[in-house]
Amino acid sequence: MILATRKSHLSVTLLNALACSVVFLGVAPATTASEMPRQLAAEAKRAYQAEQKILADYSTATEASALLAYARLLARGRIANDHNPVRVADIDAAIAVYRSLLAAGDAKINAKVTAGLAELLVRKGGAANEGEAQALRAALHPAEPATQAPPGADAQAQDLATDGEAALRDKMSKGSLDAAFELLLLLNRQNSPEADTLRSQLVLMANLSALDSDSAVIRLAGRYTSSFDAQQHPDVLKSLLALAAGYGNDSAVAIIEKNRDVLFSILGKDELRHLMWELVDGGSSRAAELIALDLVDENVYGFDEADSKWAVSMLEEARSYRANYLIAKLYYQGIYVEKDLARATAAMDRMVDGAAEAGQERLVVADRFARINLSDSLIAKYALPIYLDIWKGGKSSVIGRLARIVVSAEKAGYYATSVAMPISPEQLVAELSSAYDAGDLSVGLILGDIFREGRLVKAEPARAHSIYEGLKQQYADSPEMQLKLREALAKLVRQDLEVTLNYSPYYAEVRELAGQHNLWAMKEYGMLLAKGAPQFEADPEAGFTLLLNALSQGYFTAGPDAAGLALSTGSADKLKRLADVYANFDPRILTPESNVQLAKIDFALKQFDKAEVLLDTPEMLELPTGRFLLVQVRRAAGKLDAAEAHRQMKDVVVSFKGDDATLLGFVQQLTQEDGLSEDFAEPILVRLAQLADRRDVNAIIAAFKLRQKWPSSQALNFRKVVGWCNILAERGQGGPLTRVAVNVNPKVVGDESFRYLIDTVEGALPHLPTNGNLRMFLARQYLNGQYRPRDFTKADQLTKQAAELGNEEALNSIATNYYFGHDVEMDRDRAEALYRDLAFMGSNRSALALARNYSKGPSSRVYESRAFAYYIKAALNGSVTAMTEMGRSYLAGAGAVQNEQKGVAWLEKAAELGNTDAMIQLYYYHFIKNPTNQNAEAERWLNALVAAEVPDMILRKAVLLYGRDKDANKDEIFALLDHAEELGSQFARRLKNSYVKEARAGVSK
């Protein structure tokens, strides 16, 4: 309170102290929640009026003592208004008054001014202010290193513990509370009867000191609270705490919070709660804040909802910096009040705007943001600027906290590019590395995670491993940190499992960590059990249960996985069990992402109205996952048609800036919808391509599938597909690149893209040491000499490598070389033996080669039967060429009894599979039976050959139409001849000229 009130309280306290029977000051503990606020409002009115008179006197004061009192009042804070006891400090104005007193040079109060100014500069924060404070303290105590004087401490107190009794008595006689306290401890150790007298003197000195400055009293209260003497003399403890509380200093609140459990045991909850009211009466905003949040913090002190609401209103009126945080928390989470996102974010905006002037308080507030359960984007928006401002001001110790927010926001997609980040990834990592190298172990985990994940900078697994192992040594005595570091190392092992194949050791480590209740390991092991893995047998029910256990312990990251399993099985029982786990949490602590999971459960249970209520709020609509799901809910409820739902879902996908896995899920859900045109899908596929370009394997696989649905998509063009195949090839997965190489049509993709494919294949071979197909693909390019310089040596080397890998094409090529004596001595027996082995293993090439060799042999039934046997083997194995030869064999009776019906059946089977030789054979078969222009069966196959663009058969069609009715079919005839000419038929041009001449001759007649 103000000076007059403090003197009034002092007179009572002095009398009680002398009688060694101390009681609380001020009003007695209230019996109802509303009584104490009413009494405080009445006292605030009297104090406010008295303070206004004193402020008027200060405005004209010139004496150093009056100006010092004015500076202290400004630093402590002025009463907010005539009914609100909360004080609002004006640090800048207080500093200005202190500076004027330094310039005045009053020797009597210079030390007090210097110490007070130094304390305020530290409170304001910033490298420049802290540097000036250090210089002021060094000047105040030139014989002592400046670093030995902590903020707000009497430098002389540091050596008191080593002083003798005489020295302590001497310092005590000069007014040192610290010396009196140390002397009391000394007398207690000596079991001196003088201790009781000294204790009373200590209280008296504290009251006298409080008239001049309350900082020493608060320091004494803090030291005494943690002493053994306090437990034996609770009356003295109450007296000192009440004295400190009466001045409303926030530091007194810190004493209570720090020693809360001890104070509960000594004083009890009721008296401790009354101390908090005393602090509010003295103007402490921190005490009011603690009352406001008591119900949120498990009602530690026993304040009720009416108390808390009153405290909120007082803080909001006072407009203290930390009050903005409190208002944001209450309205964001809906504590005591209806949720109001606009009001909450407005309070957060005020916090950010006032960060530069808030001094050390801004660090406290920024640290508390994480406890509001804000989304990643909101934390980045509101907490990050405060940390950045503090860091730029020279406080490097916040770099770890700053990094955690930046990394989390980057993962959530808050930054579209690295350029948009408030600090470049390289600088952030450099700052973290410097801090870690300088001994700041608190940044070790985040730095190791950055190098492990490789998101901000290139992944360096070895460096991450080194950091984790170094931290394990440093935190050898911390079981909690050991568990965290084992988790980090397990994640590092997990990333490389596909290469190392160390599945069993990894599973054993995760199982052990899960057994020690490591929540990440519980989630990981739960997913392994739920879905199975290499060398790991699935147990879906056990896995789901483990995920629920992790979620029930507050590991909300397990929620989406548990929901995914429940939704994939469609089990109502699993969905209800999951909903029950979420229901056990206070809704205020559930993150927006968790509410999305709840809405998914309601959606799956067809509780559309319930899901819509959860999702249709401003807060949830800030989340892309919430908006995307809301569209699906409304469509299922019949409130949106398919076209509008697709449009809204597409808007979410195109504008999405979140994590890659969520975006991929959106893309996959939307592209599974029916009725999407290629133009509509293209922007969606662009986002998918961006994911694939970031080497996301699941996105690459999805892109391959969707390219089959929309083959002409520019976002999924051939070159991109080849590039993504190469990403998989680098990981040892050569299947996709092999499929592209085997099935590519160079004419369709163009020469430049085909060369790009060849380059990619050649570059990928070192990563695919067992892939013979790609080696043969490349060998053909060196043999053909079109896209690579012809190089028989390199082609032969690649073919031999492929043959050693068991590649059928390569082995057939070697067999053919032996058969014809290409580059080796002719050895047909060896060639046929190799052909037979390959045919036995299912090679159609070898079976056909043997069949053709036997067909060219002596004209005997033995050779024809052998040829037929290999033809039928290849035909039954799917060879279209062999099917055609089977048809010819049955029609001619070569190697089998002649059977026209079987022959035609085999030819038709081959023709249906696109074999033009079979079509030609069928055309002639039917034409020979009826060589007229009215043969429907023959014309059916002739038309098929025209569609297959066989030039000779196009000519035959034109001749057929000419013979049937040249005038009626004139346009079609010439169109067919033009097309045949385009395909390279010289005879088509001559025939066309002949028809033209004939037509002219007819006209002239």
TrEMBL record:
Residues 1-25 form the signal peptide. Pfam families: Sel1. Coiled coil: none annotated. SUPFAM superfamilies: HCP-like. Keywords: Plasmid, Signal. It comes from the Bacteria. This is Sel1 repeat family protein. InterPro entries: Sel1-like (IPR006597), Sel1_AlgK (IPR050767), TPR-like_helical_dom_sf (IPR011990).
